[in-house]
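quick one before i forget lol
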Amino acid sequence: MPWLVITDPFPPGFFLGPLQIRFYGLAYAVAFLVGTAVATRHLERKGISSNVSGNIAFWTIVFGLIGARLYYDVQSGWWFYLTHPQHIFAFWEGGMAFFGGIFASLIVLLVMARRHHIPFWDLLDAGVLFAAAGQPIGRLGNVMNGEILGPPSNLPWAIRYTNPASMAPHLGVAYTPANLYEAIGTLLILAVLLYLRRRGVPPGILGLTYLVLYPVSQLILFEWRTDYETPVILWGLKQAQLTSVAMLLTIVPIFFLFWLRTRPRGEVGLHSEDMIRA
């Protein structure tokens, strides 16, 4: 029954005097604060001061935002942005592609690891904890904006936007909340990362695990996304799904080799003997 869905009558922001405050921006700000706190605490366990980790987090955020925006520009209509360059870095208009943020952040972490003489794998682990802790909060901004939506639905948790300022394609229509699915997916990844950290896995395992699980989540979750930013590109896959496939083809072999390298030699030998006997 359509009336059982969730109705969102709220605008995507509010005015503080002449200044417009958008919930999307507030969600990102809170996500950055929480992510930085989680990453800083992780690095403190490695003996890295909060000043150094804070500096690394700052530059990672700056270039991560630039990368996310540029990747969004490319996948949502690069020709428009070439002919309207004033919109290229218009963050306030909304629109981020997280894969672009990942690629830019990896470059920053490589540079910072060399500059501060910190093992890259430690920074990578801290970086993915930052991402996994902050992403679900950022998705709440997408919920308030009325973006990252699935197909129309009458499910009890479908969301119907009624405010004219909403970015939903059609007011009064209830949509599958793909934005909430994204948030839940990242929370599950965070739970896996925290479990692995508790198990005391070697540095780098957290980072590589995230770089495998996140593309897998996008391959699945983009099946629910039908918003205008996600057209089918090739082989029935959307832009982010193709990027996910490319990442998996790159990261999975690295993960496997890294896992073999970090396992105790006795354990590797034992499993090899078992395979021979089998």
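fyi Residues 266-278 have pLDDT under 50 and may be disordered.
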